[in-house]
Amino acid sequence: MLSALPHECMQVRTMLLFQKAVSEGGRSMVYECAKLVDKMTDCERAGDHKGAKEVRSDASDGLWPLMASHGLSWPLMASNGL
After folding, report:
1. I want to staple 22 with a disulfide (CB 3.0 to 4.6 A). Which of 5, 9, 45, 78 is the partner?
2. Residues 78, 23: contact at Cβ < 8 Å?
3. HEC states along the chain?
4. CA-based angle 71:82:76, to the nearest 5?
């Protein structure tokens, strides 16, 4: 019978916790982007083009470039455990 050594179990546990953290962080970023899109849509429907422009400006300053540059690398990062 083969059994895993304690340090191997800890390495697997660490890898799984890392994958969970990466996936939850990525999901959180997607939800934030969706929330901003909803805000922009609500402002535009209400005729508040200035409010929509402010939301768009806030999103384009930080969140959307981060999603565009790192969003595709998260699955690789999670699967490689890096």
Report:
1. 78
2. yes
3. CCCCCHHHHHHHHHHHHHHHHHHHHHHHHHHHHHHHHHHHHHHHHCCCHHHHHHHHHHHHHHHHHHHHHHCCCHHHHHHHCC
4. 40
Which residue, chain included where needed, has tokens 């429907």? Answer: 45
63 alpha-carbon distance from chain centroid: 10
Q: What residues contact residue 82 under an 8 Å CB cut-off, 6+ apart?
A: none
Residue carrying the six token digits 């997607």: 30
pTM of structure: 0.66
pLDDT, tens only, 31-53: 888 888 888 888 888 898 888 88
